[in-house]
Amino acid sequence: MASALQTVSVTVNEETRLLTLPDDTPLLFIVRQDFALKGTRHGCGEGQCGACTVLVNGLPVQSCQTPLWSLAGQKVTTIEGLAPGAISLVQQVFLEEQAAQCGYCTNGIMMTVAALIARRPLPSRHDVLEMLDERHLCRCGAHIRILRAIDRLLGADVETKA
Ligand code: FES
Ligand code: FES
Asked: Does 26 sit in the ligand 1 pocket, CB within 6 Å?
């Protein structure tokens, strides 16, 4: 059955646009095409890899599995919106630890980590690793460096913006 067109007010990184698109258009396409934000990666497109992860109302979601019709009244944050005009703490620590190889998975992982360390009290290392294990794939050899970055973020210096 063909998708119906729907008009929805979509807010990404504090910018709101009225979009008329097929109602099942994935948020992934909306952020990359309609908002021209290319930091959110298109990986599997099937909810398996986590490369497309963004935040909706502060919670990590797979944007390839999030349709237009579900976005009315929701606040979407992409990697570009974590610390507008600056570099977020998560990005800074991932950079310092060189926690990427090809980098395709990295922005999605950083979004999930940012959401987790924004929680108070902080989640345990086990909780963070369990969530990453469930939601993200990295095909390169960056795992140890990603773990080092997470350990630092779960340490003392997490009071600044995630
Ligand atoms: S591109 Fe969305 S989970 Fe892989
Ligand atoms: S760094 Fe290449 S997929 Fe993770």
From this structure: no
Q: How many CA atoms lie within 13 A of 88 on its CB side?
A: 23
Average pLDDT over residues 83-102: 96
Report the DSSP beta bridge partners of residue 62. Answer: 53
pTM of model > 0.70 = yes
SS3 78: coil
Distance CA 46, CA 42 (A): 10
50 Cβ inside 6 Å of ligand 1: yes
- Alpha-carbon span 114 to 106, nearest angstrom: 12
Q: Is 104 in the pocket of ligand 1 (CB under 6 A)?
A: no
Residue in the structure block whose two tokens are 């990005």: 91
Which ligand has the shortest distance to the CA of 106?
Answer: 2
- Give residue-wise pLDDT tens across range 106-121: 999 999 999 999 998 9
- Partnered with residue 53 across adjacent β-strands are 62
CB neighbourhood size of 146 (10 A): 23
Provide residues with CB under 6 Å of ligand 2. Answer: 100-106, 138-140, 142
